[in-house]
Amino acid sequence: MAKRCYYEILEVERTASADELKKSYRRLAMRFHPDRNPDDPAAEEQFKEAKEAFEVLADAQKRAAYDQFGHAGVNSGAGGGGGAGFGGGAGFADIFGEVFGDIFGGGGGRSRAYRGADLQYHLKITLEEAVRGTTVEIQIPTSKACETCSGTGAKPGTGRKTCGTCQGVGVVRVQQGFFSIQQTCPACHGLGEIIEDPCGTCRGAGQVETQKTLSIKIPPGVDSGDRIRHSGEGAPGEQGGPAGDLYVLIEVKPHPIFKRNDADLLCDMPISFVAAALGGEIEVPTLDGRVALKIPAETQTGKVFRLRGKGVQPVRGGSPGDLLVSVHVETPVKLTSEQHELLKAFERSLSGEQGGDIAARHRPREHSWLDSVKRFFDDLRGD
Ligand SMILES: [Zn+2]
Ligand SMILES: [Zn+2]
After folding, report:
1. What sign does the CA torsion over 103, 106, 111, 116 have?
2. Ligand 1 center to residue 207 CA distance, Å?
3. Which of 97, 105, 338, 342 is most exposed, with the fewest beta carbons within 10 Å of its own?
4. How many other CB atoms are there within 10 angstroms of residue 135's CB atom?
5. Considering the entire predicted model, what is its pTM?
6. Residues with Cβ within 5 Å of ion ligand 2?
C-alpha cells in the first residue's frame, strides 16, 4: 500500500506553519488515541500515521527533505511503517549525498567516480584439489582503453560538446506527482557533455571488452560455498573509480568414492560375508592411497570404522578430520553348485546344533527383531 502524503494525513496545507501543524496533530491525536478507541485497529493505524507525519513535519530539516523527495527523503525502510529509518537514518543521508553530491560535487567536477561491480566466478574443482589446494588459471572478462580513440570515446579528430538534454549541468528535473526531483542526466550520465562523433570501435564507450587470465590460488581445505576474494579484479570503475572485487565461488565436484562432511570424509566399503563373519584385514582407500583396516569377527553391515586424521585439514585451521568407513556385507552372487551345497551344509550345521533357537544364537539382529515383533503382538493382545 502506498504511503499517504503527510500533509494529507495531518489535514493541513503544504504551507502550514509549525503552529498549525501542532494544532492539527493534537486534534487528530485526541480523536484517534487508542485510549479513546479501544479495540479499534483502524483508529490505532490513523493515530500512528498522524504521529509519524507530525514527527517528520515538525522537524524543519526532515520537512525540507520530505518536501523535496517525498517519503524516500525521510524513510529508508522500504514500504515504510515501523518507523525504523527515520530522520538521521541512512536513507536520509544517502538521498542527500546522492542528489547534492551531483549538484555541488567537488570543484565543479560534475562527473562522479563509480566503483566497478563485484564479479563472481563459479569454479568447479575436484575433491583432491579442494583438499590439497591448487592453482587454476581462469579467464575473466575485463575492459581496456580503446586503442582507436585512446579511451576518449570520440572519433579521432573530433571532440565533445555540451549536453543538450541538461544544458551541461549534468542533472535534470523530473516531475513526480507534486514533487520535482533532480536526477543525473540520462543523456550524458552527469558529465554535462556528450561525444560529438562516437568512435566506431568502442561506440563511444572509450573502452573495449577483452579477456584476461588470472591465476587463482586455491588454499588446501576449501569446501563448496567458500569464496576467495581477489580485490580489484572485478569490473573496472567508471570515471576513475576503483575496480570491484572478484569472488571465486568454490564448488567441489562429487567424488566417486568419498563424500565430505566438513572436515570428515565418508566412504562405503563392501566386504565379503566371510570377512565380516571371521574378521580380517581389508584395504580401504584414503586420499593418500590405500591403507589396511582390521575388522573384528562378527562385523555387521552399517558398522562404521573411524580412521583418525585421514580426513581433511580445514582451510580455517583446526585439527584434520577423520575418514569414516561404513562397511556393507555383500551377499555372494553367481555361486557354483558346489558352493550352493557348501552353504546348505553350513545352514544344516546351524540347525543341527543343540539348543534349538538358531536366531538367538547366530543372528543377533534377526533375533532382536523377532523379539520386537513378538512384543508388538503380545501388546496388541494385552489391550
Ligand atoms: Zn546531460
Ligand atoms: Zn574508441
Report:
1. negative
2. 20
3. 338
4. 9
5. 0.55
6. 146, 148-149, 199, 201-202
